[in-house]
Amino acid sequence: MKIFHDILLPQIGEILAEQGLDNLPWERMLGNAREASQGDLALPCFPFAKMAKKAPDAIATILAAAISERVTSTAANTLFAEALGEVNAVGGYLNFKADPTWLAKMVLSANSNPETAGTLPTTGEKVLIEHTSANPNGPFHVGRARNAILGDTIVRLNRLAGHEVRAEYYVDDMGKQVAILAWAMENLSKDKVNAILEGAGRQSIDGGSNNWDGKADHERVSWYQAANVLKEQDSSIDQEVGEMVRLSEEGEEKVLEAFDAAFQPVLDGMLETLGRLGIAFDAFTKESKFVIDGSVAEVMDRLQASPLRGVAENGAQYLELESKGISGKSTKFFFQRGDGSSLYATRDISYHEWKWTQCDSLVNILGEDHKLQSKQVAIALEEIGSKAPLVVFYSFIKLPDGKMSTRRGNVVYMDDLLEEAKAQAFAVVSEIRGNELDNETMQSIAEAVGCSAVRFNIIKVAPDKGFTFRWEEALSFEGGSAPFIMYSHTRACSILRKLDSKGIDAANLLSAFDLASFDLSASPQSMVDLLRRLALHPDALADSVENNRPHQFANHLLNLAINYNTFYRDCHIVQDGEVNVLYLAISEAARHCIRRGCEGLGIIPLTQM
RNA sequence: GGGCGUGUAGCAUAGUUGGAUAAUGCACUGGCCUCCUAAGCCAGGGAUCGCGGGUUCAAAUCCUGCUGCGCCCGCCA
Predict the structure, then answer these.
(1) Is the C or the N end of chain A the one with fewer CB within 10 Å?
(2) Which of A82, A98, A114 finishes a domain?
(3) Which nucleotide is nearest to A93 (CA to C1')?
(4) Which element (helix H / strand E) includes A160?
């Protein structure tokens, strides 16, 4: 709890100095207490034992007494005295508990303005976040979803943290994958595609279990898959595709246009799916841009000047990275082919240099399969005097029976998952509220609940942890899920509806609210726990953004929802026709934080469900 | 062969730079809707934190060896 920490730290420092115990790096030891019942911050006194020649428990007791003394005797420390509710020594720990009234004061003033509640002050820092950037060769599947959801959540959280964010999609508009798609669109008829896929024992265009007719990503992926099948059988296709790839890498306009025409409808279809998840981009940058404007050629020239440069027999060029800590079968990083053309990674280097001209800090979201490549690109960037980006890696999403692959057709499509999630959510709403709400309202609730649940299910686990997709988990609507958090929010909203129905103006009550007229000493524990959680809200946001670990914030929001639910049970805002304005103010602070927190995670904060 | 990551109750996960009785959800047992939405709340059972060493007053956390799983080691993207 930073606000509390900042007040305590200098005071504790002075007391430790008085006791001659300040030659340890004790600042780092002052941390959040494990058990909320024991305090908000704790200082373990074990390290002092040796130098003080006293038992840790005795030291803690002495320090506790010194602090109590300081609180009562020093008039200058009013803020300290106001903030510190209780100090005690237990089992060698010195525990500090924040004063509930002070907590309330801090939390309520920080969250009284709905515009700024639950956010951090504007920093002006420009952050460019590149994520998703999936090859536009087929519908968005759940395996790709982790990148998009992780990336978009980092985008959203950075915005909440006051940064100026730009979300970019790097469009692979050249190279083999699009070339195969373009070749297929040009050379294969629908009948032929069907015949090829059936012959290979694959699902044909019309054989799908779900109906996504007319959605180009779903249609064209069959062409892509059929071309891949053909390529195995007929090497002349490989050559044709190879020629297209070569021309695209030379920036040949006609070929790039054909590629564009082939993939753009697919990309649009993918973006439609992403849009349903609340994922959008500020900019699309095409890979070909850097070939056409000559920056790739320039980068290759500069790389040639590196002392690490080597040349293969056929003239291909590479950097020898053994001295940079790269090991394995090959330590060579090729940046130019024998024919002088560039490689994907080389173009990525150009892209990064350009990205640096657009921002102060740079974040990439990449699958763990890109770890080596990313390291190579980072070294190469430093070789040419540029800077490496910050990269967030994630582990792949697998299906219970293996890895997903668009090429092989072993996938769960996001469109299908979202439909299923919506259907299941609809079943729940209509069961609970079928006799209160009209169909249209329930449909929109189901859409929000379904999509939010899918997002949360993926974002709540640490990126570097392996993830196996299971339907029953993806569609969980109970504790530990997005609907659980959303439900807390609707509860807070329902209170406002209740006040409104009684003709009570909540805004009026709140503007006249004076904390000083309330005695918080006998407040329910659940209320204090909620205040404590709200006081941790900015810390959770800041930490999550700083470490690029959105699951930490997801976890915090879950805890906030739990605390709110308990508060809701214990602290009735309307009781016997009377409004408890303190409770109302706290409920509103929590509502704002939950709402903004939901936005940060891409969960839709419904007002009723 | 080498590198990177991961292994926490039956299952899925949390555990910021080492700190108190390892937290949460699902599942399991029992209780709570004349009361702001029960998609909720309360109580209970369930863990040799992969295995062995080491560092420390203190290790799920740090070091080391082993082991299971994942990813990578293309003049592919």
Answers:
(1) N
(2) A98
(3) B20
(4) helix A142-160
